[in-house]
């Protein structure tokens, strides 16, 4: 690895309905377009360092940190449109929760699998509405351009480190965990179900980390393939030049605040 590559920050992000949120090692930065203008904000990320050395738990901690940033973004940029804010997405969420609960009551692995599959419906509805899928493409293209030293317009709209790579392992581990729980406990309660969900997230994140560290192996490529196809088919859309401009503004801001840090 060259000295130039070693200096690159490890960035992540989340698409907004009208912009982009980027995570750096210690800070976040967001840019949105409102009434034709670009608004930018940034701040320090909350950190849960106590779990950094605990496999499984550290992945859940990183997810918790990412979610903890969202209210900070909304406070700094009140006009930022979050992915789950629309009425259509809220209705899909309520419907998925009701359907999932009914399927789980049926019992069996098939019921758990169907409930897990339905749980991704709100995210799919969000991606098909408005500009969220385009800004998801902006996220990938902006970060890839930074990592590769290229222009965002020329980068692919799919990225190997996308959270879509977590979808299948989380579903599989959740179904397996729920099936095991029902074999061990006659009537598992809500707390036990929540524990299984957290454990599933931890397992999925550890698998994600392993795949990133072993990116060139056939197993890692197979792990990423379902997420890549999900991105290609419905998770991302080619952004416009104006949307890419918003992505560049978010990227410039995260590099500025991380450099200052």
Query: What general form does the structure show?
Result: globular
List the uncertain runs: 1-5
Major β-sheet profile: 4 strands, antiparallel
pLDDT averaged residue by residue = 83
- Strand order, main sheet: write it out: 1-2-3-4
How many β-strand stretches? Answer: 4
Radius of gyration: 19 Å
Number of helices: 10
> Portion of residues in helices?
55-70%
Structural class of the secondary elements? Answer: alpha+beta
Estimate what percentage of residues fall within beta strands: 5-15%
**End-to-end Cα distance:** 24 Å
Order of helices and strands: HEEEEHHHHHHHHH
Description:
The chain has 261 residues and is of the alpha+beta class. It is built from ten helices and four strands. The protein has helices at 3-6, 57-76, 87-106, 108-118, 121-128, 132-148, 167-184, 190-213, 218-235, 241-260, and strands at 12-16, 19-23, 27-34, 37-44. The chain is globular, with a radius of gyration of 19 Å. Mean pLDDT is 83; it is low at 1-5.
């Amino acid at each position: 690895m060259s000295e130039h590559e070693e200096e690159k920050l490890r960035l992540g992000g989340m698409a907004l309905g009208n912009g982009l949120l980027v995570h750096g090692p210690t800070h976040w930065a967001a840019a949105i377009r409102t009434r034709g203008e670009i608004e930018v904000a940034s701040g320090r990320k909350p950190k849960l360092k106590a779990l950094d050395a605990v496999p499984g738990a550290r992945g859940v901690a990183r997810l918790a940190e990412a979610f903890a940033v969202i209210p900070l973004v909304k406070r700094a940029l009140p006009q930022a449109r979050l992915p789950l804010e629309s009425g259509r997405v809220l209705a899909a969420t309520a419907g998925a929760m009701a359907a999932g609960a009914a399927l789980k009551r049926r019992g069996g692995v098939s019921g758990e699998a169907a409930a897990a599959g339905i749980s991704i419906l709100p995210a799919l509805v969000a991606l098909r509405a408005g500009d969220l899928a385009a800004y998801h493409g902006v996220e990938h293209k902006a970060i890839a351009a930074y990592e590769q030293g290229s222009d965002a317009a020329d980068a692919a709209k799919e990225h190997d480190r996308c959270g879509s790579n977590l979808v299948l392992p989380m579903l599989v581990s959740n179904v397996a965990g729920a099936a095991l729980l029902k074999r061990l406990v006659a009537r598992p309660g809500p707390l036990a179900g929540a524990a299984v969900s957290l454990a599933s997230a931890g397992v999925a994140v550890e698998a994600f980390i392993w795949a990133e560290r072993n990116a060139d192996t056939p197993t890692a490529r197979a792990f990423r393939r379902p997420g890549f196809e999900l991105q290609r088919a419905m998770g991302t859309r080619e952004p416009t030049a104006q949307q890419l401009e918003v992505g560049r503004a978010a990227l410039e801001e995260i590099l500025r605040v991380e450099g200052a840090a």
